[in-house]
TrEMBL record, chain B:
This is Nod factor export ATP-binding protein I. One of its GO terms (molecular function) is ATP binding. Pfam families: ABC_tran (PF00005). InterPro entries: AAA+_ATPase, ABC_transporter-like_ATP-bd, ABC_transporter-like_CS, ABC_transporter_ATP-binding, ABC_transptNodI, P-loop_NTPase. The lineage of its organism: Bacteria, Pseudomonadati, Pseudomonadota, Alphaproteobacteria, Hyphomicrobiales. Involved in beta-(1-->2)glucan export. Transmembrane domains (TMD) form a pore in the inner membrane and the ATP-binding domain (NBD) is responsible for energy generation. PROSITE patterns: ABC_TRANSPORTER_1, ABC_TRANSPORTER_2. Belongs to the ABC transporter superfamily. CDD domains: ABC_subfamily_A. Residues 6-236 form the ABC transporter domain.
Length: 263, 304
């Protein structure tokens, strides 16, 4: 029995993925304005609605106003949802209904090149969404300048993480119908477990332990202090955890999609 | 440059216990047009996908442009242009953008791509449509764009899965004419088809497949002469059993498919005489073709 080797399916070189990224960029450019508004509207509504509404009730949190506290959580969450949704919906369509990958696989691109291009693209959209909110929040005086610039690489890394994780879901899901489970059973609980909208110390101890294992927690631990102009603790741990969450699911999705698409 | 473009040796493929490609062996020489002919489900598309390295064979050996496939499929594909069975163009992109994006997949620079686009558009007769969105093109135009796209990397070998399926006759003839001009330029073409006419017109050699097995291989006219070797009369209507009894003494061979009788005879005038005056019969005399070869070899017509 001859097998497609995993090695041959991995990214072939350091620049092939860029052709895939640029294809997606060209497609996005045609709908950029609508896409930007769509990506920013939801997190901005959450930020301002919760920030002003709840902020009045809860008062100060961890030594700052609630809305200042919330900014970092909303930026990380929007990077998460932006990368996840781009991957489970748009990428799945390119693999499935639009046959975009089928055309790509007829060229000298490998499956790994395609996946890397897709993940990098979804991370780019996450960076764009996170940066957009950061800029608006800074304009309103809710983010510290210039330390918020340190959040940008963390936002991009968050995008990579959730694009890779969503790629595993894409490689397993038979149809769109399954994505809602990922959204409701994984992504939404993570928002509440990882301290996006309230401090993690409000949770029972067991939940705090779980949260420490989740990627969004590490994103928020990097992004929130940058937004508040505070020093970041355990930078290496957070970046390391996020890198593992970016790389391992990526490799897993290459293996899974190889079995799904090329057998 | 090797004189062999594709070499398949004893290739097998099964899905869930069902054998779809069964010990298929053939060689495509550089510069020839080679056809894989057979009904749907004969294994044509699976063979194409194995040649492109998208499906690993269970057993056997595949070499494409001197590279082992699937192990070195990426290197092989760098010299191959593919026309897939179903259009997978970028519908929201213009014709030019489709070519640009696809050229990048082959690591071509923007300058290299811009340099070849005008000749590709001219070749595909799409010069006036360069800035039209794909969604605005007719079926024939889309197919020609897929062909132009497959040529962007100046491939030595073109692999085409059902290149004219779903096209009207005019569009089909235009594609055939374009393919002949590619052959004249020295390109190698592997095509799959269930159109006997397409195979007969284009292919230097072909391989007839049924249920994953190769049942014949050769030049179209040699196959027709060897397997049939005379003209054919198709007989419609009337009582088939009566008709067959009447013509049997004069026929070299008779095949029945549904309500149609195929009579192969060296002297069809004799056959015609026997049936003269019979009510409700319609007779069609024609030279033998690959359809007859397929019928002879399998006992049935090609079902699409």
């Amino acid at each position: 029995m001859m097998r497609m080797t995993y090695g041959a399916a991995m990214p072939a070189n350091a620049r092939n993925w860029l052709a895939v990224w640029r294809r997606n960029y060209l497609a996005w450019r045609k709908v950029a304005l609508a896409s930007l508004l769509g990506n920013l509207a939801d997190p901005m509504t959450n930020l301002l609605g919760l920030g002003f509404g709840l902020g009045l009730i809860v008062g100060r949190v961890n030594g700052t106003s609630y809305i200042d506290f919330l900014v970092g959580g909303m930026v990380a969450t929007s990077a998460m949802t932006s990368a996840s949704f781009e991957t489970i919906y748009a990428t799945f369509a390119r693999m499935h209904t639009q046959r975009t990958w089928e055309a790509m696989l007829c060229t000298q691109l490998t499956l790994g090149d395609i996946l890397l291009g897709e993940v990098a693209w979804a991370a780019s959209k996450a960076l764009l969404a996170g940066t957009g909110i950061t800029i608006v929040a800074a304009g309103l005086g809710y983010a510290a300048w210039p330390s918020m610039l340190y959040a940008l690489p963390a936002i991009a890394l968050t995008g990579f993480v959730f694009a890779s994780l969503a790629m595993v879901i894409v490689s397993l899901a038979p149809s769109y119908d399954y994505f809602v489970f990922y959204q409701t059973l994984v992504l939404t609980p993570m928002v509440f477990l990882c301290g996006a909208v309230f401090p993690i110390t409000q949770l029972p101890a067991a939940f705090q332990l779980v949260a420490a294992l989740l990627p969004l927690e590490h994103s928020i631990e990097l992004i929130r202090p940058a937004m508040l102009g505070r020093p970041v603790g355990s930078v290496g741990t957070h970046i390391g955890a996020l890198c593992i969450y970016a790389v391992v699911p990526f490799l897993l999705s290459v293996a899974l999609l190889l079995r799904r698409l090329m057998r | 440059m090797s004189s062999v473009a594709i070499d398949l040796a004893a290739v097998n493929k099964s899905y869930r216990g069902k054998v779809v490609v069964n010990g298929v062996t053939f060689t495509v020489a550089a510069g020839e047009c080679f056809g894989l002919l057979g009904p749907n489900g004969a294994g044509k598309s699976t063979i194409v996908r194995m040649i492109l390295g998208m499906v690993p064979p269970d057993a056997g050996k595949i070499t494409v442009l001197g590279k082992q496939v699937p192990a070195h499929a990426r290197l092989a594909r760098a010299g191959v242009g593919v026309v897939p069975q179903f259009d997978n163009l970028e519908n929201e992109f213009t014709v030019r953008e489709n070519l640009l994006v696809f050229g990048r997949y082959f690591s071509m620079s923007a300058r290299e791509i811009e340099a070849v686009i005008p000749s590709l558009l001219e070749f595909a007769r799409l010069g006036s449509k360069a800035d039209a969105r794909v969604a605005e093109l007719s079926g024939g135009m889309k197919r020609r764009l897929v062909l132009a796209r497959a040529l962007i990397n100046d491939p030595q070998l073109l692999v085409m899965d059902e290149p004219t399926t779903g096209l009207d006759p005019h569009a089909r003839h235009l594609i055939w004419e374009r393919l002949r001009s590619l052959l004249a330029r020295g390109k190698t073409i592997l095509l799959t088809t269930h159109f006997m006419e397409e195979a007969e017109r284009l292919c230097d050699r072909l391989c007839v497949l049924e249920e994953g097995r190769k049942i014949a291989e050769g030049e179209p006219h040699t196959l027709i002469n060897e397997q049939i070797g005379c003209d054919v009369m198709e007989i419609y209507g009337g009582n088939p059993h009566e008709s067959i009894e009447l013509i049997r003494p004069y026929a070299q061979r008779i095949e029945q498919s549904g309500e149609t009788i195929f009579c192969y005879a060296p002297d069809l005038d004799q056959v015609r005489k026997q049936l003269r005056g019979r009510a409700g019969l319609r007779l069609l005399e024609r030279p033998a073709n690959l359809e007859d070869v397929f019928l002879r070899l399998t006992g049935r017509e090609i079902e699409i």
